[in-house]
Write a structure and sequence with these properties.
Layout (H helix, E strand, L loop, with lengths): L1 E5 L6 H12 L2 E4 H11 L2 H11 L6 H15 L5 E4 L5 H12 L7 E6 L2 H9 L1 E4 L5 E3 L19 E2 L6 H15 L3 H6 L3 E5 L4 H12 L1
Parallel strand pairs: 1-3, 1-4, 2-3, 4-8
Antiparallel strand pairs: 5-6, 5-7
The structure holds zinc ion (ZN).
Zinc ion binds next to loops.
């Protein structure tokens, strides 16, 4: 089984990927991680990538394809892959098809964790933590029992992360849409895109993903 998992920041993609790894023995292939590992290990592809990066250039699709091919070969035919952050372009999607086909594999599912942007803004901008003990709260969903007092430690100071603001969330959503726009239509035309409500409880999201894979 080989899948692509897509989801904007805040949709819980990391958690769901981890659960897929645990439940199905899949391996998560993040091109950034693979690149760093190959450079560190000094593989032929890693050395090529290192030279390109040291020259201040972007790593080519060809190098990324070689990295993925090496990784799939190392994993063995029995282990499926979760592609994370790749492909980003139509050309990369085409390369991925070729890489998989040459190893007797195919892409089975593209699963997108769908979010309602306004609800995501509310979820993220409302969260804050106790400055003393770190307990998490939310303006709407989890207020302290006594206003202004931490339930856990009785502290009165709270803090918010500076990037938990509406503008940042909407910018990240726009970036996510721009990144996935080139590839989603390709997979939609093949009928392998499935959308799951990323705003649901984590376990419910997992159950929906399991239903798609079943
Ligand atoms: Zn506290």
């Amino acid at each position: 089984m080989n899948i692509i998992l897509l989801g904007p920041p805040g949709a819980g993609k990391g958690t769901q990927a981890q659960r897929l790894v645990e439940r199905h023995g899949l391996k998560q292939l993040s091109t950034g991680d693979m690149l760093r590992a190959a450079v560190k290990a000094g593989t032929p592809v890693g050395l090529k990538a290192k030279a390109v990066m040291e020259a201040g250039q972007l790593v080519s699709d060809e190098i990324v394809s070689a990295l993925i091919g090496d990784e799939l070969d190392a994993m063995g035919a029995g282990t499926g892959a979760i592609f994370d952050g790749y492909p980003r372009t139509a050309a990369q999607a085409e390369s991925l098809d070729a890489i998989l086909a040459s190893r007797g594999r195919q892409l089975d599912h593209v699963i997108e964790l769908d979010v309602n942007e306004d609800a995501l803004v509310e979820r993220i901008t409302g969260r804050y933590t106790c400055a003393t003990c770190g307990k998490g709260y939310h303006d709407t969903f989890e207020k302290p029992k006594v206003e202004g007092t931490c339930d856990k430690c009785g502290g009165h100071e709270f803090k918010r992360r500076p990037d938990d603001n509406e503008e940042t969330v909407r910018t990240r959503m726009a970036e996510y849409r721009a990144k996935t726009a080139p590839i989603l239509p390709i997979y939609e035309a093949r009928g392998i895109v499935a959308r799951v409500d990323g705003m649901a409880q984590m376990d419910a999201v997992t159950a929906s993903i399991e239903a798609i894979l079943a």
